[in-house]
Amino acid sequence: MPDADDTIDTDDDFIDLRSDTVTTPLDAMRDAARDADVGDDVYRDDPTVTELEAAAAEAVGTEAALYVPSGTMANQIAVHVHTEPGQELLLERESHIYRWELAGAATLSGVQTRTIDAADRCVPTPEAVTEGLVTEDLHRPGTGLLALENTHNYRGGVAVPVDRIEAAAAAAADGDVPVHLDGARVFNAAVALGVDASDVVEPVDSVTFCLSKGLGAPVGSILAGDETFIEAARRVRKLFGGGMRQAGMIAAPGLLALENVDRLAEDHANAARLANALDDLSGVDAPEPDTNIVVAHTADAGIPASELVSECKEAGVGCVEFDDYTTRFTTHLDVDGDDVDAAVDRIANVVDGAAPVDARPD
Ligand SMILES: *Cc1c(COP(=O)(O)O)cnc(C)c1O
């Protein structure tokens, strides 16, 4: 194993596993941006955005799609369109919409959230959905929307099988409640499950996915659904400040990003390789992931995530704190198998060099 001092950090040498959002656009994307046909997309005059929206809708098997600046905006537009102020939004308690979107559902759409526990594979059971639905009456607000997530980010990039989505969505449909899928990484799910993304999306009424994550675009996400929904979503995008003008400049790389779906399998293989190697380190528990997100638990090693993150950074590896003793590493387009092996060496040095567990306060 190399000495830590040998492996640190020139900037070029830094292996950034904080997220799959850190990818930088390839030359072909930069060329496509420069050469894109553009127009004012608020007037629907941008042919490149229109082409991207059509290709995106086709990729997930919906009637229509809308190009938006971020996954967060896509989710928040969906919440706004599907619900009325004062209704409830039902979602899983570790979902991105609940955990990491600044209470946007409350502030932007005036809805109350009700959380349910995820069952096996990160999707609530139909029974849990049924129990969580609230029927409107004199005292109760009524449920406006059920939101699901696939892959499930916080639980480690879990690829939720289609039948689980179907079962949860059917329970919501029984209560006349629409379903939104936060599929920021829906293509990772599809590739891991060996199905088409349209199969993953088929049971739900709308879906978000990010072009800017593993697919490698510099910016942008998609909200997809039927034509009526997307027409309403277009107005809400404007309301939220997301109407863009010559957006073909950023949509053109997005079109190329849609060609990167199949190669996500490489990211998954690299993540499995990383998890297996980390799991072999003393005191580190890193279950084999379904997709490109590795979650490492270091409680047994007595290493807090905040310390692991800062020492990995020193050693030339980027990662993020997920919880007190839980750290996330994400593989993506800009790291290959050699980078993963180099990252493992550096992380191993950090773990080996940490103070022994019994020397730490409780
Ligand atoms: C990244 C992510 C989002 C938000 O996407 P941004 O483009 O960062 O706003 C939403 N949901 C999930 C599950 C994500 O992983």
UniProtKB/TrEMBL annotation:
It holds the Pfam family Beta_elim_lyase. It comes from the Archaea. Keywords: Lyase, Pyridoxal phosphate. One of its GO terms (cellular component) is cytosol. Residues 16-300 form the Aromatic amino acid beta-eliminating lyase/threonine aldolase domain. InterPro entries: ArAA_b-elim_lyase/Thr_aldolase, Low_specificity_L-TA-like, PyrdxlP-dep_Trfase, PyrdxlP-dep_Trfase_major, PyrdxlP-dep_Trfase_small. It is an enzyme of class 4 (lyase). One of its GO terms (molecular function) is L-allo-threonine aldolase activity. The keyword Lyase applies. Gene3D superfamilies: Aspartate Aminotransferase, domain 1, Type I PLP-dependent aspartate aminotransferase-like (Major domain). Its cofactor is pyridoxal 5'-phosphate. GO terms for biological process: glycine biosynthetic process; L-threonine catabolic process. Its EC number is 4.1.2.5. The keyword Isomerase does not apply. The modification N6-(pyridoxal phosphate)lysine is found at K213. Belongs to the threonine aldolase family. This is Threonine aldolase.
